[in-house]
Amino acid sequence: MNGSVPDTPANLHSGGAVASRAMLGLGLGNTVEWYDWVVFGLLASFIGPQFFEAQDPMSATLDALAVFAIGFVARPLGGALLGNAADRVGRRIVMLLSVSMMAGATLVIAVLPTYDTIGVWAGVFLLLCRVLQGISAGIEAPLSTAYAVELRPPGHEGRASGYISFFVNLGVLLASLVTFTTSYLIGPAAMADWGWRVPLLVGAAMSIVVVHLRRALPETLTPQPGVPPDRRPWSGVRQHWVGLAAIVFIVGGAQSFNYAWNVGLPNVARGQYGESPTAVFGASTCLGLILLIGSLVTGRLADRFSLSRTFVWTRLAVAPTVFLMLLYAAPGLRTFLFVLVAGGVVLVANLTLYNLAATALMPQYCRATGMGLGYGVGVALFGGTAPYLLVWLQARDVLWLFPSLTAALSVLSVALFASARRYSGQFAGT
C-alpha cells in the first residue's frame, strides 16, 4: 500500500489512519456482502414465481428457498479453498476476491431473464449465481472477524467483532429498508412483476465503491518462509479438530436462529399468512435497527466481562427465546413484529460473538482455513436449511420442532466451546 505510513503490524495496531481505512474497507465490504445475501432471501416469495414453474405461491416460495439453501452448500468449499489461500498468500487478496464475486453474481441475478423467457434455464442460472455467492460468503464472514481482530490492538477483540457485526447488520438493515421502500413506492403488484430487481441493482451499484476501498486493504499475515509441516494450515486444522467441531456448532446454532428470524418468519408472513409485503419489510427493518445498534453494545460488553462468559450466557439465552416463534401461529402483524423484536435482542448478541468465539479456537497460522471450513459446514447444515425447514414445518402444523432443534444446537455449542478451550489450553483467562 502506498503512502507515508508503512503497513506494518505496529502501525496497524496503533489505531492510526492505515488501520482506520482498513477497518472501513473491511466493514463496508461486509455491508455489501450481507446486503446481497439477505436481499435474495427477503425477495424469495417474488423470485420463486419468476424463475420456476409452480402450481401455487407456497410451492414457488419453497423453490426459491431451496435455491437459497443450495447456495449454502458452496460455503464449505469457499471457506476451505479461500481460507487456505488466506493463510498461505494473505488476507487482502482473498477479501478483495470475495466481494467481487458476490457483486458480480448479484448483478447477473438482477438482469437475468425469467422462466417465461428462457424456461428451465432461468432456474439453472439462478442456482449457479447462488453457488458463486455461497463461495464468496463462505470466507467473508469467518475471515472478516479474524482479520479485524488482527488489525486491532490486544484487549479490543470484542470491539473489533462488534465493529464487523455493525457493518454486517447495516447490510441486513439496508436490505430490509430498500425492499420496504421499493415496495412502498411502487406497490405489491409492480414489486411482484419487476420491482424485485431494484434492490438487487442497488446492491450491485454499492459494490463498485467497496471494491475500490478493498484494494487498499493492508496485509496482516506475517510471512513465514520455511514453515515446518506441522505448522501448515491443514496440519493445524487437524491438530485442532476439537476446535473445528466446536466452530461447526457455534456457527450452526447462531445461524439457525438468524435465518429463522431474518428470512424464515418473513416468508411465512408473506407466503402463508398473506401479510402485506410492505408491512413485513417494515417489521424486518425494525429488526435490522436492533441488530445494528446492539452489535456495538455487545462488543464492548465482551471486552468488559470476558469473551467466554458473555458468549456462554447469551448463547444459552437462545434456548428459551427461539420458542417465541410459536406465538406467531396465525395472521397478525402485531404478533409478528413482537416476535421479531423480542427475539432480536438475544439474536444480536449471538451474531456479534459467534465468529469471535470461533476465532479464539484457532491459532493464526491456520485460523482462516479452520474458521472457513467450520463456518461453511455449520452454516450449510443449520443456517441455509433453516428458512426452508421453518416454512415446511409451519405448513404442516409442527413448527414446534424447529425451535426445539435450534435450542438443542445452542446448548450443544456451549458444551463444545468449553471442551475446545480446555483441549487447546491457549485461551484460559480470556
Give your account of this protein's structure.
This protein is 80% helix and 0% strand. By secondary structure, the protein is mainly alpha-helical. Helix 11 packs antiparallel against helix 18. The chain is globular. The model is unreliable at 1-15 and 426-430 (pLDDT under 50).
Helix and strand topology:
Layout: H1 9-13, H2 17-42, H3 44-51, H4 57-88, H5 91-111, H6 115-118, H7 121-151, H8 157-195, H9 197-214, H10 233-239, H11 241-272, H12 277-305, H13 307-316, H14 318-321, H15 333-359, H16 367-383, H17 386-395, H18 401-424
Helix pairs in contact: 2-5, 2-7, 2-8, 2-9, 3-4, 4-5, 4-7, 4-16, 4-17, 5-7, 5-9, 7-8, 7-15, 7-16, 8-9, 8-12, 8-15, 10-16, 11-12, 11-15, 11-16, 11-17, 11-18, 12-13, 12-15, 13-15, 13-18
Instruction: Give the tally of β-strands.
Output: 0
Beta-strand content bin: under 5%
Q: Give the fraction of residues assigned to helices.
A: over 70%
Please state the average pLDDT score: 82
Shape: globular
Radius of gyration: 21 Å
List its traits.
430 residues; mainly alpha; 18 helices; disordered C terminus
In summary, what is this structure?
Helix content is 80%, strand content 0%. With 430 residues, the chain is mainly α.
